[in-house]
Every structure is written in structure tokens, then in C-alpha cells.
Amino acid sequence: MPIDFTAIDFETANSSSASACSVGLVKVREGVVVDKVGWLISPPAGHDEFSEWNTRIHGIVASDVVGAFGWAEQFELLADFAGDDVFVAHNAGFDMGVIKAACAVTGLTPPPWSYLCSLQVARKTYSLDSYRLPVAATAAGFDAFSHHDALADAEACAAIVAHAALFHGAADVAELASIAAVKIKVLHPATAPVAPGVAWVDRRPMALG
Fold this sequence. Notes:
This protein has one domain (5-191): Nucleotidyltransferase, domain 5 (2-Layer Sandwich). It is built from 7 helices and 8 strands; from the N terminus they run E-E-E-H-H-E-H-E-H-H-H-H-E-E-E. It has helices at 52-58, 71-82, 92-106, 118-123, 133-139, 150-168, 173-179; strands spanning 5-12, 20-29, 32-40, 87-89, 114-117, 185-186, 198-201, 204-207. Strands 3-2-1-4-5-6 form a 6-stranded mixed sheet, with helices on both faces. Helix 5 (133-139) crosses helix 6 and helix 6 (150-168) crosses helix 7.
């Protein structure tokens, strides 16, 4: 299997993991970006308040998502783009938590997607003072991007994993994970309803203050 995967990044409207307001997706084949797409999302009811803190980070406000697809409407597009690919994301627990939580509150069951965390890969590949996405992406030769733009962040994540595979001489994502001693995990649906203001991490609710 060559270096094939889909990089993904979400931005959220508030502290609820179900409050996805934008997504970026980047498809990589044989270590090269072959397709990319991103769009705004109207968060589910009860999770749709835009906090000042989150808006300060990504710049998205409630009026920006008026008329955008809701989570359930856009999920088929997301799933079609990803197909059976392994997802990669920087701090993947967050992004997979968004999928789990948003599906839970909209009555959807996500596929059992496999996923790899580029943050963990970066820690096993580079010697850096910080492994935040902009720093790790620069080490991979991808810099000067608009951090917290979902599509730009997904591109940066893709660059890290593609570069790390080359660095380690890995023939595919599974071999990269093995060499870097990082687990490829599997997405499982949330096991309980997600209330507003609750984030999902490893299937356990963690209230956000």
C-alpha cells in the first residue's frame, strides 16, 4: 500500500465537540496531494452558539454559516470524499471526537474509520521545541499557511505525514505508524448522547469549563 490517506481538520463554534462549523479535507496518493476541499458547516441545534473565544481563533461567526449544510447534510459529502482512507489529523482525538459527537447528536453512525495522529508522528520524527501544527509543518517544509483555516490546517497535516513517511522510508501509512511506534486507531461511535458544552475524548465525556 503506498502513502495514501485523507487529512482532515475541523473548526468548532464553541466548546462542544458537536459544534463543527468548518472542515478541510485533503486526499493524498503516493505521498502527493491529488484533491482537496473545504466548506462551512451549520452546527446542530443546541450546539450552534458561536463563542467569542472560538471566533477569535478561526474568524468564523454565526452569519457565515447561514445557508450552509448542517452536519447530517454534509456528512455524506465528507464520507464520499474520504472513502475507505485512513484519516490523519493533528491531535486526531479532537477531530475524531468532532465526528463522534456531531454524529451522536444528529442520529448518525460514522463508519469505523481508521486514523493516525500527525502530532504523535511529528514527536517521533522531529526534534522540536513545540509540536504545534505550524511548527511541525515548518519542519516538514510546509510553512506560511493560514493556521486555523480548516483546509490550510489539513494541508499542513498532510505535509507532515507525507514528509515523515519519506524521512522514515515507510512504504505506507501502516509502516510509518510501526516505525514511529504510533497506533493507528479506529473510530467508534459515541456511547451516550452528547450534551451542549461537553467534549468527547476517547469515548468519555469531559466537561469543558
